[in-house]
Amino acid sequence: MENSTSARPNFFDSKVLGHPSGLFVLFFTEMWERFSFYGMRVLLIQFLTMSVIGLNPGWEMSVVDAGAIFATYAMLLYITPIFGGILADKYIGYRWAVVVGSLIMTLGHASMTLETEFFMYLGLVLLVVGTGFFKPNMTSILSEMYKSFPEKKDGAYTIFYMGVNAGAFFGMMLCGYIGERIGWHYGFGLAGIFMLLGTLQFWFAKPIFGAIGDVPNKSTEVKEETSIDTKDLTPAQQDELKRNPFTTLDYILIAITTIIGFLYAFSDVFYIVGKIRLFPAEIFGMDGKAVVVVTGLLILMWLIISRIVRYAKVVRDRMIAVIIFAFFTIFFWMSFEQGATSLIIFARDNTQRVLSGDKALLFNSSFAPIYFHVVA
């Protein structure tokens, strides 16, 4: 499908280091967003678990409860971009999605500076919604910019992700230092200031992008309808092209497993915040939550297996490979997110946090971003 947002060759007339100036607008916008994201991320678990008594008090939650809140927040960060990408692609365009997401995230950071229970949770909700609009559409703009120049795309993404890791490094260092030494709300506030800076920068630089990322013009969309003559194909190739539509039972099972999954994901947070139980205490004398979750997993496994066996062998083998990779990806991201929870607590409670005569609580957390920055 081709539309008016395609990159034009003259877009490269204004170059910086061999790339269009728009790349560096995206570079700094993403850098400031990552500054705010990682700056807040590294403070949250500490603020929730720090003692209510002291010069810089927190909420004195248990590590388990604080970890459950962060886990739900992190989960939603990976779900909302699906919907933000759909809305941008079909209705509001990539650029407006970035602007809307940036503004919502700025409000989220501002809300968290108040440190009350209502505004802290409201801030997390706003950050989740804002990330859904912002995150998928920055890279979509970048991809559109280089549509006519695929040979330069690898270099562009390398530069772009240098900004990601630079922002993560400085965000954790500065917000962490200020949050610990001066006050948590100052750390949250600094994250919000840089998010606002990224928003203003992108807004004033919008003319640089021309029609790239603009609101989709449905009147100019061209739907490609291709028909393939299967007469000259082998039986195996014909099987590969066959569709495997979802049945009514498939949709019902998908709905059931999705509902159970979301109930499980939100169950701890609902109980921590409002003492609301989403699962019965007992089912047949066993733990109700465990029974429902195991039932959901069994339904999901049956659904996956029943779907796979309906495909041709070639497609089936590919799907099995994807499922295996997806399964192990879970453990990678589970380990990665420990950098904002258990590793932060371990560094706070079990390491010597003195560097050049001054505390540097979050120094170790910054090694990965600066490493990727240098390597890039």
TrEMBL record:
GO BP, sorted A to Z: oligopeptide transport
Keywords in alphabetical order: Cell membrane, Membrane, Peptide transport, Protein transport, Transmembrane, Transmembrane helix, Transport
Highest taxon in the source lineage: Bacteria
InterPro entries: Dipep/tripep_permease (IPR005279), MFS_dom (IPR020846), MFS_trans_sf (IPR036259), MFS_Transporters (IPR050171), POT_fam (IPR000109), PTR2_symporter_CS (IPR018456)
Topology within the bilayer: Multi-pass membrane protein
Domain Major facilitator superfamily (MFS) profile: 25-376
Any one Gene Ontology molecular-function term assigned to this protein's record: peptide transmembrane transporter activity
TM stretches of this protein: 35-55, 67-87, 94-112, 118-134, 155-179, 185-204, 251-273, 288-306, 318-336
Entry's localization field: Cell membrane; Membrane
Any Gene Ontology CC annotation: plasma membrane
Pfam family, one: PTR2
Family: Belongs to the major facilitator superfamily. Proton-dependent oligopeptide transporter (POT/PTR) (TC 2.A.17) family.
NCBIfam families: yjdL_sub1_fam (TIGR00924)
Designated name of the protein: Amino acid/peptide transporter (Peptide:H+ symporter)
Species name: Myroides marinus
Lineage: Bacteria, Pseudomonadati, Bacteroidota, Flavobacteriia, Flavobacteriales
